[in-house]
Amino acid sequence: MEDIEAIALLQDPVRRRLYEYVAARDHEIGRNEAAEAAGVGRTLAAFHLDKLVAAGLLETASRRLTGRSGPGAGRPAKLYRRSGAERGVSLPARDYRTAAGLLAEAAETAGLDDELRAAARRRGRALRAEPPPAGMEEVAALLAERGYEPRPDEDGTLRMRNCPFHALSERFPPLVCGMNLALLEGLLEDVPDVGVRMDPRPGHCCTVAVPSKNNQD
């Protein structure tokens, strides 16, 4: 019921705009910025933001935005970022996460890494777009549809702010990250001048998509 109630909060259009704005940022957001982005007053934005925090959809931090400290520096500002918690609803109740965890545990114990990567690569090929994406912008749009939330670096590398397999990758990193890489290899196999490789960083997916000239191990 908690997941249903949390997701139901997003039915309010102002609350949904605030959540989407904060969730899409790579940094923590203050109330003034969020209010301006949503087109509402600061007091109303604060009310809705704190509702989202109470529901576990956002998290908070405190920091002085001036960068100063000591007397006269002002009070720390309340900042918001997307929560790392996952929310999902299945009616009637289904427990696919436990099943996925058991399957991953069995695959890891049996040493089925190669077989899993081969299956993931086949699935990626089956999910390929027709016609294939042309250029990194279309690749980014395709990855966004798959839930990866890609963001470009200055050199054109697409780093993923979200891993669709996050819960499993934390428990079985080599197995699940290898599966993820193989899935993307299959998905982008027929895209010219684009490759994928491992490049794990905190708060990001373990894989990146790169222009082929940067696709170096």
From TrEMBL:
It comes from the Bacteria. Gene3D superfamilies: Winged helix-like DNA-binding domain superfamily/Winged helix DNA-binding domain (1.10.10.10). InterPro entries: ArsR-like_HTH, WH-like_DNA-bd_sf, WH_DNA-bd_sf. It comes from Actinomadura yumaensis. This is Helix-turn-helix transcriptional regulator. Transmembrane segments: none annotated.
